[in-house]
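Open question from group meeting: does this chain pack into something compact, or does most of it stay loose? Before anyone orders reagents, we agreed to write out a predicted structure and look at it together. Recording both the input and the output here so the notebook holds the full record.
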Amino acid sequence: MSPLQIQAFDAPLGAEVIGLDLARPLADQAFVRIHRAHLDHHVLVFRDQRITPAQQIAFSRRFGPLQIHVLHQFQLAGFEEVLVVSNIKDEHGRPIGLGDAGVYWHSDLSYKAHPSLGSMLHAQELPETGGDTLFANMHMAWDTLPAPLRAATAGLKAEHTYLAKYAELQKRSPWRPDLSDEQKAQVRPVVHPVVRTHPETGRKALFVSEHFTTRLVGVPEDESAALLRELFAHSVRPEHLYRHAWQPHDMVFWDNRSLMHLAAGCPDDQRRKLYRTTIEGDVPY
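Structure tokens returned:
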């Protein structure tokens, strides 16, 4: 195997990790390089990883404790830490995974008191066409935010809730389950800064999304909605984006403190299945 290399993409974010087989033990020195590259590039792509769910979980845990998704219905059997992201249905017509994950721009688990540090998504089955994932650099979004918008967002906080678009998603995807009272209790609204500071690099980033951010706290409703629309639109300008075209057995690891992402979608008649693990982060500040 070739020596470990980090090859940056010709994009506003992202790099490919070359010469690493995650099915083999990872030396501490190599882990330090991966950790640094993740902070520098925000998205890391590991090609052709023939790993088991247990190996994905073990590698994810090197970065911190894992978070269990509220939709326990779509956990991988025997591995509660793994969320199945899939449009495949079983012989009874029931979905085996969350088929409409990521249809709106978002940062994973921003609706939790401790939002996600990062997520790892490992490809199991890919469609022949479509299925790309887009990533938006939220550090760059903040750095390029026009001065009037910077002034308008200074010191503001925003509410995030998992339920923001849940009913709408259920109308589009009737198989999306109703949430139990226990599940709803796990996703009560939280409030986070509109501009967060990365706890490891100190860089500032916008921390709002069209999926989970519902309002700006203490701002009149019409002003809040208008300002959020401007922030959303600016965040996903083409010059802030990297588009990942999946290859078989890719594993992609992204920093939810630095990015938003979006699933571009694929034809309904083409199978797609990926396994996601999610690492717990810090309280944003």
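Observations to bring back to the group:
The radius of gyration is 18 Å.
The first helix runs from residue 28 to 41.
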